[in-house]
Design goal:
α4 crosses α12 and α15 runs parallel beside α16. This protein has three domains: 81 residues, Rossmann fold (3-Layer(aba) Sandwich), CATH 3.40.50; 184 residues, 3-Layer(aba) Sandwich (UDP-N-acetylmuramoyl-L-alanine:D-glutamate ligase), CATH 3.40.1190.10; 134 residues, Protein-Tyrosine Phosphatase, Chain A. The chain is 33% helix and 18% strand. It is built from 16 helices and 16 strands. It starts with 7 loop residues before the first strand and ends with a helix. The strands form three sheets. The chain has a six-stranded parallel beta sheet, sandwiched between helices. Strands 11-12-16-13-14-15 form a six-stranded mixed beta sheet, sandwiched between helices. By secondary structure, it is an alpha/beta fold.
């Protein structure tokens, strides 16, 4: 357990997480800030709070590490290696404050944000004091008016799990795992084991929900002496459930596969099934996550800028016909396209960005591809090519790549696509 009061903290990385940690810890502790990008630290902050060099002059009790920092390749990697036993993160600080509050932690390669949002809305509709926090963009230490009945729904990334030391979740959910973030984790094995640390740290009172199709779990479970109660979730949704869903957002394979996890959470909290369906059918979806931004008689445009790997795009592409697929950006190490050529018979690809040759090679002999310098040029080409297509067509912007070659994040990339569509007047 982290004992906070009166301790000395170094906060390394001053993004959303670092700022919320600083606001919380600065009240009762000695706190210093370090960020490799000085522009991230507000000028109004006292210079006494900022440390640049000579870290060894202060014997810090804890180093609060931002999830986005790779401790093996950052500017103070040697210092972090020597003091690795002191590394904690925002989740650990939160756990020390609310050890008895119910925590539902959701991780997985794809679908986390949508699942945590639905669970949050279902619990709120049922009268539970639920809080939606974590990697979805709401810092967990910024929550106010917490009481003993408050339930936290936490979207947790592999980066957050990697640096957590004390955090324990009551309900841990692993939706799916496919190769991702290998630039950071170095191998799929490391990535896999980082995700499962969420379950490994649980006690006998914990509950774990995992996708029954995950490879190697039984072997991993025996090797690591998993203590929590395990439920293996079959992601296949029955026709009976599908018949009660009127929201088109959930009728593609990506979103449909994760609903069984939400149903199990409802069962654990004894929430009525009607509440689940009412919430589902009113759910408007999340911005830039398989978001329908235009719908006409013979044209549907979907903005899925959140897609950063092939695994996050595949099911969306498989859910429609006559597709104009816009993709590209910064490719990810180890990313694989597992679909057969027959799955792409009705797809045309428009590739842009830094690694367009990588994507063209992946789609070779499967899809007819065109390459472009940027997103604007790719979208304009689609606009020009659909004029003679009178049938129902789907323009799907699902990059299957990171955004950093041309944009700060997927949100900026998604906003740019919306502006292009608006200007072109599809």
């Amino acid at each position: 357990m982290v004992i906070l009061k009166g301790k000395k903290f170094l906060i390394y990385g001053f993004g959303l997480s670092g700022k919320s940690c600083f606001r919380f810890l600065n009240k009762n502790n000695y706190v210093r800030i370090l960020d490799d990008k000085e522009e991230n630290i507000p000028k109004i902050l006292s210079k006494k709070k900022i440390i640049k060099k000579k870290l060894r002059r202060v014997n810090f009790d804890y180093i609060v590490l931002s999830p986005g920092i790779d401790k093996t390749s950052c500017s103070i990697k040697k210092y972090l290696k020597i003091n690795s036993n002191k590394i904690i993160n925002e989740l650990d600080i939160f756990y020390s404050l609310c050890p008895k509050n119910k925590k539902i932690s959701i991780t997985g390669t794809n679908g986390k944000s949508t699942v945590v949002s639905i669970i949050y809305k279902v619990l709120k509709k049922s009268g539970i004091d639920a809080r939606l926090v974590g990697n979805i963009g709401f810092p967990i230490l910024s929550e106010k008016n917490i009481n003993k009945n408050t339930v936290f729904i936490i979207e947790v990334s592999s980066y957050q799990i990697e640096y957590s030391k004390y955090f324990i979740s009551d309900i841990a959910v692993i939706l799916n795992i496919s190769p991702d973030h290998l630039e950071r984790h170095r191998s799929f094995k490391n990535y896999y084991e980082t995700k499962f640390k969420l379950i490994k740290n649980q006690t006998k009172r914990g509950v774990s929900l995992i996708n029954k199709n995950l490879d190697h779990f039984d072997k991993y479970s025996k090797k690591n002496d998993i203590k929590s109660k395990i439920y293996k979730i079959n992601p296949i949704v029955s026709n009976k459930i599908i018949s009660k869903i009127s929201n088109n957002y959930f009728l593609n394979k990506n979103n449909l596969e994760n609903l069984k996890f939400v149903l199990k959470i409802c069962q654990i909290f004894k929430i009525k099934i009607n509440t689940f369906f009412e919430t589902l059918n009113k759910f408007k979806g999340l911005q830039y996550r398989q978001q329908t931004i235009l719908k006409k008689k013979n044209l549907i445009i979907i903005n899925d800028s959140k897609s950063t790997s092939f695994s996050s795009s595949i099911n969306l592409i498989k859910s429609y016909r006559n597709i104009y697929w816009i993709l590209g950006g910064q490719s990810k190490m180890g990313d694989k396209l597992t679909l057969k050529k027959s799955d792409f018979y009705d797809v045309k690809a428009y590739i842009y960005g830094k690694d367009k040759n990588f994507f063209k090679n992946k789609l070779k002999n499967k899809i007819k591809c065109k390459k472009f310098k940027n997103l604007n040029d790719a979208t304009k080409s689609v606009y020009n090519n659909i004029s003679n297509d009178k049938s129902l067509k789907h323009i799907i912007f699902s990059p299957a790549a990171a955004s950093y070659d041309q944009y700060r994040n997927f949100e900026e990339r998604g906003k740019k696509f919306n502006l292009i569509v608006k200007k072109l007047k599809f």
